[in-house]
Amino acid sequence: MTFFTVAIASALSLGVASAQDTAVVNPIKKENGLVRIPMKKRSDHEMVAAHLKRERDALLLALKEKDARVTDGLESELEISKSAASAVLRGSQPKFGDQVEAVLTEGKAENVIIKDYSNAQYYGEVEIGTPPQKFAVVYDTGSSNLWVPKINCQNCGYWFIHGGKSKFDSSKSTTYQADGSDFHITYGSGDVEGFFSIDTVTLAQDLQITGQKFAEVQDAGGLGIGYMMGQFDGILGLGFETLSLGGATTVFKNAIDQGVVNQPVFAFDLGDESDGELTFGGYGEKNLPCYFSALDLYLMLFMYHETTRNVTTSIADDSKFKGDISWIPLSAATYWQIDIENISLGSFSSGTTTGIVDSGTSLITGPSSAILQLATSSGAMPNIMGEYTIDCGKVDSIPDLQFQINGKTFTVPGKDLVISSAGTCLFAMMGMDIPQGPQWILGDVFMRKYYTIFDYQNQKVGLAEPN
Fold first, then answer.
1. Cβ neighbours around 235 below 10 Å, total
2. Which sequence positions are flagged as catalytic?
3. Residue 388 in 3-state DSSP?
């Protein structure tokens, strides 16, 4: 009963939507052969409210454990506080670094996804089955599997939180095929378990991908409160097949192979204070002004009653970015991993490192020691869980964060390193220690500053200044 009361209170504080509201996303647009899927943005208010709830829960748990254990001389108050914070963030899971190290030792590195969906901020729609069943998913370049909860899934949300999760019912799909092999994935926050199935997946209402292997999740307990409170049902991974569990061909690779997209390219346009957009099959080009001869002008005047016009040099519209695209080759085609020459803010300088461009992570993450230095340089202070807040009056004085990538500088202004609501300012960087693999995650905080293009065939990422 206590949990029910707390969950109700949390749902009310974060905002409760009906099931219909959760399932409905803005109409999908198809233009010039491109498919545009609207990406709904979780509000800054919800992000900050979730942070405050995690902090409150960790403090309450620390106080409870202090009474039980400090009096017995078992551990120091600091050790108990850290233990409590870990329990709130990870449930009953071991620390993430220990999870990764253990899995790597067992030779199962593909089972580890370096993320925590408690801060997932953007989600869009996908359909599975015939007739289609709709789901809100995180389109995630940091993983490679598609999964959604099945009916009777455990730890998969409650009706009073955003109307509950949409759940897949295989008995209602005429194209469903059983697979039955186990699905077990370890995220930064914990384990998700279920089994694989095969069915038709539909993007943008009519781009059908047949024979898609996906997972029906039976227990999402490892994702904890972040998943239960989130407005997404599942994950659609847009990484490479080397990360895909169960030998499943990724949704986008199948879309390429089955010819349902024009080009092996997709792109994200994430608005600063608004919803975003995901484009499949290409990307929006800038307008290039063209100049014509006198004869051209005469013919144009005769045919169009105009003397000059702009010609768009792409199958896409021209509203997404301006200037040139900076193309960055991947250093590894697992995640969308790139080499970074330097990351700097104030007196901090990282030197050569690696990072991934990740639409499924809201914040920018890096090694804990580096994030501490960056936070200190910005005037941010850590809390019991290792998350950082900053005095809202100091936001304008935060230095810019600069990434040196492929010989160019990409800047995130200091003011954009903060997520604020109701007088609380959350520093949008978090420590995450990864024993092997990329050291930094360039999440939505970075991607909001750049129109971001993912070229699957040529294994490169493009960044351009958004309009």
1. 31
2. 140, 358
3. strand
